[in-house]
Write a structure and sequence with these properties.
The protein is α/β, with parallel strands linked by helices and 253 residues long. 35% of the residues lie in helices and 15% in strands. It has 10 helices and 9 strands. The protein has a 7-stranded mixed sheet with strand order 5-4-1-6-8-7-9, with helices on both faces. A two-stranded antiparallel ribbon has the order 2-3.
Length: 253
């Protein structure tokens, strides 16, 4: 697979900040003695196709704690505008000389590294393409989503945006223009198809479910995958009730 990458640097970024309105400081909430952001970083680093990883956070003083964690873990970080997410992402990936962006989100702490690689492979084998994601198929459990796209598309978006809505979201400019940018959508295989399962971290009830899942599964395999989660939920179906009343916002990213 490395030969198919053709020397291109696939760099993962995790957008993370402490200023969530619905669940403040959520990325540093702890499970089994570790901040969720650390758990996510460790899991993402198990991807075999990512060349490097960087945390994209903000210049706000409350995000100093995220920077401190990155320093302690020896993880790259970049600080930029809190509201200008597109600019922050562009400068993050320009700083680290990215060829292909692997865009991850801090509200997905249980991301499966094998799913990261699946979406990267879809990007590689569908060249030429401009945007690959498993978010829009709505077949994977929420919390397993990511986007992959060339840096040139991110740069073009940064140069061309002229609305506040596009500036406030990292990929909206090219995500809502499928007639201008070639999209590829990745659906879940049958064993991972479970769209009713929500393990994205939006509210306290999500944290409760994520904590239960991590504590139940990590002792057997610290890097348990999406299938392990799905299998466990199928045996403990009552857990779905924990966060089913959480109202999800429209995907904006």
């Amino acid at each position: 697979m490395d030969s198919l990458k053709k020397g291109r640097r696939f760099i993962a970024s995790i957008q993370a900040r402490m200023g969530s309105a619905r669940l403040p400081n959520k990325v540093l909430k702890e499970v089994a003695g570790k901040p969720l952001l650390q758990i996510m970083i460790e899991r993402a680093n198990k991807s075999v196709l990512i060349d490097d990883l960087i945390v994209a956070t903000t210049l706000e003083s409350r995000d100093d704690a995220i920077v401190d964690l990155c320093k302690n873990l020896g993880v790259n970080f970049f600080r930029g505008s809190e509201d200008g997410v597109l600019e922050r992402m562009y400068l993050t990936h320009k700083e680290i000389s990215t060829d292909v962006v692997v865009s991850l989100y801090g509200d997905c702490p249980l991301i499966d590294p094998k799913i990261i690689d699946t979406v990267i492979v879809a990007y590689i084998v569908n060249q030429p393409c401009d945007y690959v994601t498993n978010l829009d198929s709505k077949t994977y459990p929420a919390g397993m989503g990511l986007e992959v796209y060339p840096f040139r598309v991110l740069e073009l978006a940064y140069q061309k945006v002229n609305t506040s809505e596009d500036r406030e979201h990292s990929s909206r400019y090219f995500r809502v223009r499928p007639h201008e940018f070639k999209h590829v959508h990745v659906g879940a295989p049958p064993e991972l198809y479970y769209p009713q399962l929500e393990i994205a971290l939006d509210e306290d009830k999500d944290y409760e479910l994520i904590k239960i899942l991590y504590e139940a599964l990590h002792s057997h395999n610290p890097y348990f995958g999406c299938k392990d989660i799905v299998d466990y939920i199928k045996l403990n179906n009552h857990l779905l009730d924990i966060n089913q009343k959480v109202k999800r916002r429209e995907l904006k990213r």
